[in-house]
Amino acid sequence: MYLTLNGRIVGYEDSGSGLPLVLIHGYPLNRMIWKAQWEGLSKSARVLAPDLRGFGESEMVPGTVEISTYADDVREFLQAIGVKGRAVICGLSMGGYIALAYLRRYPENVAGLILANTKATPDSDEGKAGRDKNIALAQEKGAEAIADGMLPKLFAPKTYASNPELVAQARRIMTSSTVPGIVAALGAMRDRPDSTDVLLQSDTPVLILAGSDDALMPMAEQEKMKQAARNSTLVVIPDAGHLSSMEQPDAFNNAVAEFLPQAARA
Ligand code: MLT
After folding, report:
1. What is the pLDDT of residue 206?
2. Is any atom of ligand 1 closer than 6 Å to the C-beta of 27?
3. Helix H or strand E encompassing 223
4. Which of 87, 97, 160, 211 lies 20 to 30 angstroms, CA to CA, from 103?
5. Cis omega before residue 180 (within 30°)?
């Protein structure tokens, strides 16, 4: 599906009814990482999965992008499709950074937060230098070079061995991203603030989903979020790497389905 927001096209998925559950994808991905979620969870919620600007079927907008810009995009998208009340905001990895920015900016519109394969802390100096290297790589060699650099880090060892089609699908998703979208996301992630304070100050129910084999998000980071958010639950998904929503969709969906009533009551 598409809509036009401030003159630019936004691709999205909208299925089911009830409490809105907004799924924000990671980098350099698009809404297709949530296919098993809109298929499996639309009986429990209204599942909404937009493509971020410059990814999937959403157009890029020239100019600088901050993590909070994506959060504002999500807010505008929800308003455009008529979601007026509170929603459960779920983000994977960069989507988690955006979900935390959304909670900072729009706390009254959040029924619950799902933070999958992500962290609240900002980039280290080394991490920031890595962003700059990847910006140069994307500009010189394109999305394929970025995808090839990330692909070996995205899945659990068991997934690489047993599900080559899923690995190929992730590569196709990443290579479809636009270079301006990739460059903007890298800059936004490099400059993002520490969001630990948002968790410390909030009573919002939080579900933290970690992959047992996530090579990109250390377990210590998930535990830090659990400690910071007083109303939180941490679920570790076995045999899942960084893309837990795709790798272990049943375990992911079960954890979310169990969390939704808690968020609806809060
Ligand atoms: C993502 O999956 O969104 C990224 O790997 C997050 C990051 O690079 O910090």
Report:
1. 98
2. yes
3. helix 219-228
4. 211
5. no
